Amino acid sequence: MSAVLEEVLAGGVRLAAPLLLASAGELVSERAGVLNLSVEAMMLTGAFAGAAGAMTSGSALVGVGCALVAGLLVAALQALLSVTLRADQIVTGITANALALGATTYGARLLFADGAAGSLPGFGPAAIPLLSRIPLLGPALFDQTPLGYLAFALAIGLAFGLGRRFSAGLTIDAVGEDAVIADRFGLPVRRVRHAAILLTGLTAGLAGADLALAEVHTFSDNITGGIGYLAVVAVIAGRWRPWPTMLACVFFGIAQSLPFAPPALGLHVPAALLVTLPYVIALLAVSGLVGRSLAPSALTVPFAR
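That's the ABC transporter permease sequence above. Prediction below.
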C-alpha cells in the first residue's frame, strides 16, 4: 500500500510540472487583466517545436529553445489580437487552440512517421542524493527531471515576485483591477499586458517541452490533451493567488496519476471514470462549490485610453 501511494505521489508531482509551468505565466497574465485560453495552443506548439528541434538536432536543449520560440510566437499573436486590436479574449484563445491543433497535426504528418515522433532525446530524472530517499515524499519531490525542478523553482519565484512587497506585483495588480485608473497614474498598461502574455508564452512553451522531452520522450497528435485548460482552471481554483494555484496544480497532477493505482491494488474501477476525474474536479473548482473566488476586476476587459 505504501509503495503504491509513493508511486501515485511521485507520478502526480511529475505530471504537475507542466501544469505548474503553464499556470505560472497564466497567473501573471490574468492578474494583469488578460485571459489566455490560448495557453493550450502555446503548450501544443511548444511540444511540437521541441520535439522537432530535438529530433533534427539530436539535442534536448535545442528542443527546449525551439519550444520557447514557438510559445513566444503564439503569445505574440495573442497579445496583438487581445491587447493591441482589443479582440475578444475568449474567442481569440479558442481560435488559437483550434489552429494549433490543426497545424501541429499536419506538421506531425510531414515530419514524423505516422504522425508521431519516435523516442526523442530528452531529460531523465536527476535524483538529489539522500533527499530522494526520504520515505514517501523523497521520490515525489527530489527525483524530478531538470525541467521538473525548474517548474517548481519558477512557480515559487513568481509567488514571491507577485507579492505586494515588490513593485512588479503591485503594478500587475493595479493594471488588472482598473486599467483606466492605472493609466491615469502613469502605468504603462499595454506594455504590462504585452509582457504578461509573452511571459505566458515562454512558460507554456517550456511546459510543452517538458511534456514532450521529459515526460513521454515523443510527440503525438494533441499530446497536451487539455492540460492547457487545466492550467487556466488551476489559476481560478487557486483564486488568482500563487500558493493556492501551486497546490491546485499538484492536486490535478495527483488526480491524473490515480488511474494507475487501482490495478496495483487489485481493485476493479472503471478506467474511464478515473481518467475523467481531473476534469470533474476542475468543473467543481470553477463552479464555486469549493469556495467563492473574486477575479481581477478588469479581467477580459479590453483597455482603451
